[in-house]
Amino acid sequence: MVPEQDRGAAPERSRGAEFPRKAAHIAFFTWAFLLPFIPPLAALAAACALIPVNALLLPRLLPSLFPAHRSENGRLEAIHYPAALAACILAAPSGDRWYLLPAAAWFALAVVDGCLGLAHARFRS
What we know:
The chain is mostly helical. The protein is built from 4 helices and no strands. The chain has helices spanning 19-28, 40-61, 71-91, 100-123. Helix 1 (19-28) runs antiparallel to helix 4 (100-123) and helix 3 runs antiparallel to helix 4 (100-123).
């Protein structure tokens, strides 16, 4: 019989385990400042190119961002992140300020999610 705490429970993570991953989320937002200087099609191409890079290359180059207990969820998150950015770029209205919607969504994905994750890791009991 499997003990109650082991059945279906996620492995315990140390408080510092999430910091590198969330810091990478927050740091990735700095690329959003390039949006006003590139055409929407180039931004869309870059976001779409990041999907296979994040799925295949990033886990091999930075395995510390994809710990063993997060292997499936971490990869899905790495794929959904640029896919969500690509969707926001596609949904953005055309015009001189097309970049405002994708930049706002990128801010929410990167900075808000990253800071909330760090705060949760810091203050959880």
